[in-house]
Amino acid sequence: MPLHAKEHVRDNLLDDIYATSDLSVAMPKYKFPAGENRPRDAYQAVHDELMLDGNARQNLATFCSTWVDPEIHRLMDECVDKNMIDKDEYPQTAELEARCVAMLADIWNSPEADNTVGCSTTGSSEASMLGGMALKWRWRERMKAQGKPTDKPNLVTGPVQICWHKFTRYWEVEHREVPMEGERLIMTPEVVADYCDENTIGVVSTLGVTYTGQYEDIKGISQALDQVQADKGWDIPIHVDAASGGFLAPFCRPQLEWDFRLPRVKSINASGHKFGLAPLGVGWAVWRDREELPEDLIFWVNYLGSNIPTFALNFSRPGGQIVAQYYNFLRLGREGYRKIQQACYDTAVFLGREIEKLGPFEVLYNGEGGIPALLWSLKPGVDHGFSLYDLSDKLRSRGWQVPAYSMPANRQDLVVCRAMIRHGISRDLGCLLLEDIQRCLDYFAKHPGREPMSAAEGASFSHTGAPMPPAK
Ligand SMILES: *Cc1c(COP(=O)(O)O)cnc(C)c1O
After folding, report:
1. Could you tell me the residue ranges of all domains in the chain?
2. What's the 123 CA to ligand 1 centre distance in angstroms?
3. Between the CA of residue 192 and those of 107, 196, 330, 331, 436, what are the distances in Å?
4. Which among 7, 171, 337, 440 counts the fewest CB atoms within 10 Å?
5. pTM above 0.90, yes or no
6. Ligand 1 centroid vs 209 CA: distance in angstroms?
């Protein structure tokens, strides 16, 4: 029978997508579907659900890339079938990864770029696990050589991103997290030594602290640890969590000494998918030299073709993000990165000024001395009739995601809003946000007498849920 004679088939071919038998009924949600759906119908169903997600470009909570060149979309598509672990099958992807590591060693001023080792990861979290493990292994070797016990390792950090809480818990290391105190919201050279002893596997210092955006004074911390070594003989290495700063300071503050120019800095992690401008799913870990990465952390796999070294928590992983990272390095160079990042800093300063003009707010940070971000609180000592949780909640009605959160110990009293100013947050987009903040203030003024939203109520609207840490 010819196709056109089959009425029911013809109907199916001509039906509007929402009139098909697939989409005019509910799709299965939690039970595995018994039968098939046409690709275009299944696509539309999934596509429509995704409309309910927040709009990533308006998500000012995230540090991650929400805008990439059209060319990156093409490369990602071309790489959709490439597994970066198959270095023998996809040697050119492996080569691009190696080139990225060498280029990072270059911008992070490795004294011997040839002897630098490093790898890509899924992000800074995996990279921090690898960096932390290397610290723990090296410390154990040092202690064993001196005939000392190795059962009480500790790690000293400032107020850190959650990945370091994971590292210390998963790898059974005591976490000595220097708390905030008064005006001091980061770890400083003055306090670091108080937390160290001979069981300290390393100090993790952050270039772009999650809560405040500030850079810690890594050179100062390094000098404080030089003093510890002179006084006590403990040679404590530094790992820099440069998740954001690793792609900012080299371009916008090249004179700032935070990287391998400091001999005590043994390893660095960074998120390619944050200010590295790559799409989501890539981070980097780089060691100063081979000696800092113990051999027995490296596995050699021979079942992919040749004998290939790997140091990673994952095995299979997409290759596209690495390729896209290389594209960015090639496309932008130092000049391109500097221009993009500087535009973000300028926008942060501009928006900070404008937010202060609105009246109730006090800008605590506008990108100076750290990463391009804005941090503001309500002026103290005034009954504003709304809380920052209210503001955050109300801004959502226009699609903006601006987290409100309280600081960790010992400044839980300090509640802030934070906006990350990233690639793609243009001056005009920023002005639209300002208008919407003004709209919220007008609304609060017109509807007085409400009980301001509390942290507990606000938490369900926050970026990470209760309790904060305000991750990415
Ligand atoms: C974002 C961030 C991390 C975690 O990085 P991912 O790439 O999201 O895994 C770690 N440390 C700092 C300072 C960060 O900003």
Report:
1. 3-53, 73-329, 338-446
2. 7
3. 27, 7, 39, 40, 42
4. 7
5. yes
6. 9
